[in-house]
Amino acid sequence: MTPGSPLIPALYALICLIWGSTWLVIKIGLDGVPPFLGAGLRFALASAVLFALVAARRAKIRLDRDGWIAVLSCGLLSFTLSYACVYWAEQYISSGLAAILYCLMPLVTALLSAFWTRSESLSPRKIGGIVVAMAGTAFLFWPSEAVAAPQAVGMLVALASVLGAAVNLVSVKKYGRRLDVFVMNACGMGIGAACLLLLSALFERHAAVVWSRANALAIVYLALVGSVTAFQSYYSLVKVMDATRLSLITLIFPIVAVFLGRAFLNEAIPPSSWAGMGLVLAGVAAAIVPASFRKRARS
Q: Cα separations (Å) of 80 from 104, 109, 188, 233, 249?
């Protein structure tokens, strides 16, 4: 896929739709299943499917130095650290509050890309768009009540997830250019699954597991759709998009979640939410649309 491919906006929209639904599905999957176990089973199933696809494609698993860095970054920073934090934090904070915290990811990614890998410029338009979109996300989901102590701890853990995800995105952008996406995801998710299941064995061995049709289907959905499909699309886009622009999908997730809540749970959309969504979309457009395209549009 080349930078000008028409598949790029389609994959971008697909990721937003899928990951916009996973906040709620993670909550469902946590009902009766400890967080590390649930996340570990999710990536174990996803990794098994991906290794089967690697075998079917007859792709060779040969990793050079950069390939190992990319795989270990995915496995340890994204699939282990980031998801362990997300699953654990969502026991104590709402998915809306988690979305507010995750809107920091584009800003962290932009700073890392500018000052660490030096792969992107930090233009005022890009930073301004990110800040406006972050304000829109906060406007959408700012909690109406004071944050209790357990929620404060959950927020700190969720911030660790954001940092891990941002560092991984920038690392994969730098080191994973030549690596097959199927191989990277299969190996990375395998590492993540092993680490998460080890954490479960160490810290959740006495936790009661109550299986139900809902949490089992949630894990399957998160594995096949939220992991295999979404991450294949995500890391394909990493190869052809700026890391900061790609990370802006985290600002669109909450909007997708709002409309899914309306469509499937009949949740009302208050007038204030429309203002928040407008800010998010305006900020994302300012940060993601190239200046040359805007000049052509005005002319």
A: 20, 19, 9, 20, 21
Let me know if residue 16 belongs to a domain.
Answer: yes
Q: What is the pLDDT of residues 151-179, one digit of tens each?
A: 788 888 988 999 999 999 999 999 998 99
- pLDDT of 215 > 60? The answer is yes
Domain range for 167 is 7-298
For residue 117 the two structure tokens come to 């890998």
Q: pTM value?
A: 0.85
Q: State the Cα–Cα distance between residues 143 and 275, nearest whole angstrom.
A: 16
Check: CB of residue 233 under 8 Å from CB of residue 14. yes
In a domain, 2, yes or no: no
Q: 31-66: per-residue pLDDT in tens?
A: 899 999 999 999 999 999 999 999 999 988 889 999
DSSP E strands in 77-228: the ranges are none
Domain annotation covers residue 76: yes
Query: What's the CA gap between 287 and 297, in Å, rounded?
Result: 16
233 exposed, middle or buried (CB, 10 Å; 0-12, 13-18, 19+)? buried
Q: Specify the number of domains making up the chain.
A: 1
Q: What is the largest CA-CA distance in the chain?
A: 66
Alpha carbon distance 117, 119 (integer Å): 5
- The answer to the question of residue 103 being in a domain is yes
What gap in Å lies between CA 297 and CA 139, rounded to an integer? 29
Contact between residue 132 and residue 282 where contact means Cβ atoms under 8 Å apart: yes
Query: What are the φ/ψ torsions at residue 71 (nearest 5 degrees)?
Result: -65, -45
Q: Is the dihedral of CA 108, 90, 20, 71 positive or negative?
A: positive
Q: Cα–Cα distance between 131 and 167 in angstroms, integer? A: 19
